[in-house]
Amino acid sequence: MEQQGHLDRGDGIRLAWARLDGRGPCVVFLPGLRSDMNGSKALAVRDWCAAEGRKMLRLDYSGHGASDGTFTDGGIGQWASDAAAVIADQVSGPILLIGSSMGGWIGLLLARAMPARLLGYVGIAAAPDFTERLMWAKMAPAERAALLRDGELRIPSEYGDDMIITRHLIEDGRQNLVLESPLVLPCPVRLLQGQCDPDVPWELALTLAAHVQSPDVQTILIKDGDHHGQRDSHPPAHA
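Below the sequence we write its predicted structure tokens.
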């Protein structure tokens, strides 16, 4: 049976988690930006782990899902710290990280911070350094100026409410880049990427595969797959 709870990170912000007990290394699922531990991929992994009798941990970063906090107060560094705190509190022994989209970036930061515990890394449409490569780099000069002046930029999102990009998110992202310096992962690495993904270019998976230093790296490209890993025109509400 899955246990659920909250961890107070020390400043009054409570971080939500859900854990399955079982055998083997603990599978840790790291959700994407504005997603949460009840997204379709997180639940699919949870169901597989339950059926196989394996340990699993799901979690929500601050400002996401059932965790406390405000989304616009967060950034890559804080969310990675949130995930690390929940893992330290809830899991002992080896872990296998699965990161979806932004969770793939978070997973790479965690992998770099705790290599001795890591038995494997799986990136699903992993988006390392996306704040710089997929946001800032694609902004028009007027958008960059507005972001720097106002502290935030609101852009339409096909997933619901407008996306608010904060200046803090961009600047904090620059402090946590993983593709600009050596990235050693002493474990198997698997990268799954749809080639019809409108949010994360499939070439980024190849860039990550070429950059990471691991004895075992495999990239799986799904020709008609989208950002959700779906092969039809009806993606789930969350991913």
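The CA atoms of residues 198 and 228 lie 10 Å apart.
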